[in-house]
């Protein structure tokens, strides 16, 4: 079974973001970029499936500027076999990303496609679900466990209040939650080897997908800063403040 | 055109979030006109529909009661919504794990771009939503004729419950050959759900161990609070992930949030900084959590917690 993994290049999760002075967007100039953490988990899961003999090949795909090839090389160093870069410098809406990925699914015919549940920049949490709809496949979102069986996959999902397990007909789409696994670090020899692994480049036009924008970002603002309050000296003073000033307890 | 709200429910109860989502729908209706329909889909959901009919602002409750909708699996639910969508200008659901699972699938079936986790309604086509874990707020305008929106429930005040809307039956029954329900493990708790609790008390790495989280129990009991945790406490294995408050966990905005032994990493602040009142208890007076706390108490949590429990 072939496993397809989609990854996204985003601002590194440790970086404190800045909004541009003209409020048009978040400032990404000279900011450290990395693979989206949920995508790292997706790569790791695919590689583990290959190590278990469940997956025969792991193909990794990204959509983005030339620099996004860094994240593809990272995925190759972590154990993916080959990579596909769909190159564009434009901002691509999640629906269009899903349409591009659908073309890749049509071409590659993976048994399982794994994506991160959301990217930590746009925080949409949409692409996997939309890819599942467009391909007419089942979806196992927010996965904390993936158990591939004969013709089906059991996915344990992190839902509000606990866990839910669903059985999905294969091929299927899975999106990862934090608990699914702990991604490994790439070793230096693997990073060297990854440079020689195949990396194909295509354009959205070659895949027959037009980049349409239906959502316009009018403004990006820094949220209202919360003002720090006061220090209290004792439990008694704390209880007094909560009762009489804040009036949140009685 | 009308607005359709997908009701969130579990264990035979209408989820509290639904009343907040109806409030968001009400704001759109105020700007754009149109009625608000509430869809209750599931198996044996008659009692839930009765609860839903009480929500103010709802013109009609539509009930799709069939085994195929049990457990609100995404595939049949999205198909059902897609079958109903042409009568509506907006389809809303809570940004719960159900809403986030179903709405994007629906949107793609209708070939429209959805918007996730809206915080405010600026007009019928323009909404604010958090990006970068709430470290920036984007104002986004949608040119789609059908707007599919998940709503951050805590950002809208709940509507009242003095209505008695008529209840209709939806006969649409879809086929689901893609997915089936295997099982569920829900955390059994007498306590309110994290997302909807009026008071939340969370522990961090400073709690030292999973056992020490018991120190929060008595206080939570007295305050009717839900218990949460920071990612550091989850990563250290103290408590399960479903207790995690933060960018990668649950976003909460209770009236009172008590952070115990939590330093206040960006990732945690993103999940709780919209709380009305924040209390921080930490032995490190330089901890960043104090910069957002209304009331900070510097000291040893192992002494403070028992004293707090006793004096509350």
List the helices and strands and how they pair.
The complex is a heterodimer of chains A (250) and B (312).
Chain A: E1 2-7, E2 9-11, E3 33-35, H1 37-51, E4 57-64, H2 69-78, E5 82-87, H3 94-108, E6 112-116, H4 127-135, E7 138-148, E8 152-159, E9 162-169, E10 172-176, H5 188-194, E11 199-202, E12 215-221, E13 230-232, H6 235-245
Parallel strand pairs in A: 1-4, 1-6, 4-5, 5-11, 6-10, 7-10
Antiparallel strand pairs in A: 2-3, 7-8, 8-9
Helix pairs in contact in A: 2-5, 3-4
Chain B: E1 2-6, E2 9-10, E3 13-14, H1 17-32, E4 36-42, H2 46-53, E5 60-65, H3 74-84, E6 88-94, H4 97-109, E7 115-118, E8 120-121, E9 126-131, E10 136-142, E11 147-151, E12 167-169, E13 179-186, E14 199-203, H5 214-223, E15 226-229, H6 231-235, E16 256-260, H7 266-272, E17 277-282, E18 295-298, H8 301-311
Helix pairs in contact in B: 3-4, 5-8
**Percent in strands of chain B:** 25-35%
Distance between the termini of chain B: 51 Å
| DSSP, total strands of chain A | 13
Which pair of protein chains has the largest interface, and what are the residue counts?
A: A-B, 77 and 87 residues
In oligomeric terms, what are we looking at? heterodimer
Query: How can the largest sheet of chain A be summarized?
Result: 9 strands, mixed
Structural class by sheet pairing and helices of chain A: alpha/beta
- The side-by-side strand order for the widest beta sheet of chain A comes to 9-8-7-10-6-1-4-5-11
Shape of chain A: globular
- Write the element-wise H/E pattern of chain B from the N-terminal end onward: EEEHEHEHEHEEEEEEEEHEHEHEEH
- Rg over alpha carbons of chain B: 21 Å
End-to-end Cα distance of chain A: 60 Å
Supply the number of structural domains of chain A: 1
Q: What value does the Rg of chain A take, in angstroms? A: 21 Å
Roughly how much helix do the residues of chain A carry, as a percent range? 25-40%
CATH homologous superfamily name of chain A? Answer: HUPs
């Amino acid at each position: 079974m072939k496993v397809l993994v989609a990854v996204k290049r985003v601002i590194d999760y440790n970086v404190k973001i800045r909004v541009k002075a003209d409020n048009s967007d978040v400032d990404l100039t000279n900011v450290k970029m990395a693979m989206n953490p949920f995508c790292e988990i997706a790569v790791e899961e695919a590689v583990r499936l290959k190590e278990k003999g469940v997956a025969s090949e792991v193909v990794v795909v990204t959509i983005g500027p030339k620099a996004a090839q860094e994240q593809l090389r990272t995925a190759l160093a972590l154990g993916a076999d080959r990579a596909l870069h769909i190159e564009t410098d434009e901002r691509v809406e999640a629906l269009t990303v899903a349409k591009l990925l659908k073309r890749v699914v049509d071409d590659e015919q993976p048994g399982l496609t794994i994506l991160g549940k959301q990217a930590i920049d746009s925080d949409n949490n949409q692409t996997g679900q939309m890819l599942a709809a467009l391909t007419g496949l089942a979806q196992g979102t927010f996965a904390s466990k993936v158990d591939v069986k004969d013709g089906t996959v059991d996915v344990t999902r992190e839902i509000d209040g606990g866990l839910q397990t669903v059985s999905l007909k294969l091929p299927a789409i899975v999106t990862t939650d934090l608990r699914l696994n702990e991604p490994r670090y790439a070793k230096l020899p693997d990073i060297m080897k990854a440079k020689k692994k195949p990396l194909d480049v295509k354009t959205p036009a070659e895949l027959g997908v037009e980049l349409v924008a239906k959502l316009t970002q009018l403004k990006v603002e820094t949220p209202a800063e919360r003002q720090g309050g006061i220090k209290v000296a004792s439990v008694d003073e704390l209880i007094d403040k909560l009762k009489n000033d804040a009036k949140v307890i009685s | 055109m009308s607005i359709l709200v997908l009701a969130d429910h579990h264990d035979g109860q209408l989820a509290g979030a639904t009343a907040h989502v109806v409030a968001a729908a009400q704001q759109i209706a105020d700007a754009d006109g149109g009625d608000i329909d509430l869809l209750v889909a599931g198996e044996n959901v008659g009692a839930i529909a009765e609860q839903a009919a009480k929500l103010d602002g709802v013109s009609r409750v539509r009930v799709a009661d069939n085994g195929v909708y049990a457990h609100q699996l995404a595939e049949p639910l999205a198909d059902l919504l897609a079958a109903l969508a042409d009568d509506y200008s907006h389809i809303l659901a809570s940004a719960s794990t159900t809403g986030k699972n179903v709405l994007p699938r629906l949107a793609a079936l209708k070939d429209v771009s959805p918007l996730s986790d809206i915080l405010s309604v600026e007009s019928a086509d323009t909404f604010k939503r958090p990006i970068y874990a709430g470290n920036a707020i984007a104002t986004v305008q949608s040119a789609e004729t059908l707007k599919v929106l998940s709503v951050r429930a805590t950002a809208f005040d709940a509507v009242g419950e003095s209505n008695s809307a008529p209840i209709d039956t939806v006969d649409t029954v879809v086929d689901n050959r893609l997915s089936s329900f295997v099982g569920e493990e829900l955390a059994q708790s007498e306590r309110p759900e994290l997302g909807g609790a009026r008071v939340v008390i969370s522990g961090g790495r400073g709690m030292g161990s999973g056992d020490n989280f018991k120190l929060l129990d008595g206080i939570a009991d007295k305050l009717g609070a839900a218990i949460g945790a920071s990612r550091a406490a989850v990563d250290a294995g103290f408590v399960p992930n479903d207790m995690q408050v933060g960018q990668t966990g649950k976003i909460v905005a209770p009236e009172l949030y008590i952070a115990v032994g939590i330093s206040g990493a960006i990732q945690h602040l993103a999940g709780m900084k919209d709380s009305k009142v924040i209390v921080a208890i930490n032995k490190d007076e330089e901890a960043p959590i104090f910069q957002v706390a209304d009331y900070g108490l510097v000291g040893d949590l192992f002494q403070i917690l028992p004293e707090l429990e006793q004096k509350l």
